Amino acid sequence: MGLSCRSQRLQSEDARATIPHMFPQSVGAGTAQYDFDGSAYLVAPRPANEPDRLASVRALELLDTPAEERFDVLTRLAAKLFQVPVSYVALVDDERQWFKSRVGLQECQTSRHVAFCSHTILRNEPLVIPDTHEDPRFANNPLVTGEPNVRAYAGVPLRGPSGHNVGTLCLADHVPHRFTPHDIEVLKEIGLLVEREFQSLAVIRQQQEKLRLQDMLIDSQREKERLNGELRREKERAESFLFSLMPSEIAEEWQQNGRIEPRYFPDVTVLFTDFVGFSAAAERLAAEELVSMLNGYFTAFDQLAAVYGMEKLKTIGDSYMCVGGLPAVNCSHPVDAVLTAISMRQAIRAFHEGEWALNVRIGIHTGPVVAGVVGVHKFAYDVWGDTVNCASRMESCGAPDCINISERTFARVKDFFACESRGRVTTKEGKQVEMYFVRDVLPSLHSELQNGVPRAFQRRYRTYFRKDLKSFPIPDDPASGTPL
């Protein structure tokens, strides 16, 4: 290092003339060699850990990013504190040094080949050059002989979060500058502040990654909740559809067991309705008008059946069927069925508007049935037995706007309703069957209303069945309470 720049050039020229291959244009890995372009200056070797170091540089994700005040404030502070015209924070990339922050420099980068920082990153301590003209390693460096005319240099290596030297914090002057040990310690302290920013970047990115993962988790949870919500709604729709096909207790049995055991019910009441004149209306009405009319009637019937605890089982064309006393067994089903029939008749009377208003026939019979589900596709809950056939005959043997009941049903409801005996009526099978028309509630049970139910009727209902009646057919003339 004691050679003058002129003697060094002469020796180098002599060496080049005799052994050209000893002076490659690129730097050998791990060794310091001289490169020549009319003059000699030292080119820094690559660190032994260069691949890992470069990975650490790129992991900072700072290369070619816009200026940031958190770095700029430190370079300005260093320039003012040491009263130098040039101060910068540099990152040493594969082929360049790039300035993340700079004071007194026009360019944003230089070749790594000429960079002072390429030497600084090889060290663990600061590199200080009070006068570059007196240092044969740098006297002919293009950054000394040309812009920015570095005459004095002091740089501290900066470590990234991984511990590798990724860059430098540097001072430069255009005149010789003596840096005291105190100056160097202060510069190292400022360097620690820059390193802290590097560390904070890593922490910020870790936090950002955590937040990203949390957002992903939240999005995933939201998506899970959305899918669960859709699944829940689909399940509710499926359950609603299933419960619309059969009584709730039977639907629950299907859900739990995947099948429904047939059951024998010794005592139920079956109610059938049929519309008088429907065939003629079907021939004259448009399809959508016909369906709309039936939908209005049957929707009203569904609501009334539910009010009185009857289970709707099915509709067949213009016929409607519901049953009382199953699957929940009770003893009030004959009376409940008649109350349902009276309310249905009133509902039909309310629909009597227009040319094609229909009348209804209603038939009721009480007796035993077998209930169960048939089929696999489009399965339905249904009942079978002579009771069903007899209830159908009660309907077909009835009259428009009348409720026709069997003798067995009459025996169960005569204490509640005034009925007119029809005697023995011949069915289409030629059988003679006792039948009755339900005319009205017994006069003795007509009384003032309490919660919508005649007080006397409610008292008898409670006496017979040990429960209260929740609803009651509204009379045509509420003031008189009759007729139904």
Helices, strands, pairings?
Blueprint: H1 5-18, E1 33-36, E2 40-43, H2 50-59, H3 69-82, E3 86-92, E4 96-103, E5 109-111, H4 117-120, E6 127-129, H5 142-145, E7 152-159, E8 165-173, H6 181-245, H7 248-257, E9 263-276, H8 278-284, H9 287-307, E10 311-316, E11 319-324, H10 333-350, E12 359-374, E13 380-384, H11 386-396, E14 402-406, H12 407-413, E15 417-426, E16 432-441, E17 449-450, E18 453-454, H13 455-465
Parallel strand pairs: 12-14
Antiparallel strand pairs: 1-2, 3-4, 3-8, 4-5, 6-7, 7-8, 9-11, 9-12, 10-11, 12-13, 14-16, 15-16, 17-18
Helix pairs in contact: 3-6, 6-7, 9-10
Describe this structure in words.
- This protein is α+β, with helices and mostly antiparallel strands and 484 residues long.
- It has two domains: 5-205, Beta-Lactamase; 259-465, Nucleotide cyclase, GGDEF domain (Alpha-Beta Plaits, 2-Layer Sandwich), CATH 3.30.70.1230.
- It contains 13 helices and 18 strands.
- It has helices spanning 5-18, 50-59, 69-82, 117-120, 142-145, 181-245, 248-257, 278-284, 287-307, 333-350, 386-396, 407-413, 455-465, and strands at residues 33-36, 40-43, 86-92, 96-103, 109-111, 127-129, 152-159, 165-173, 263-276, 311-316, 319-324, 359-374, 380-384, 402-406, 417-426, 432-441, 449-450, 453-454.
- β15 (417-426) and β16 (432-441) form a beta hairpin.
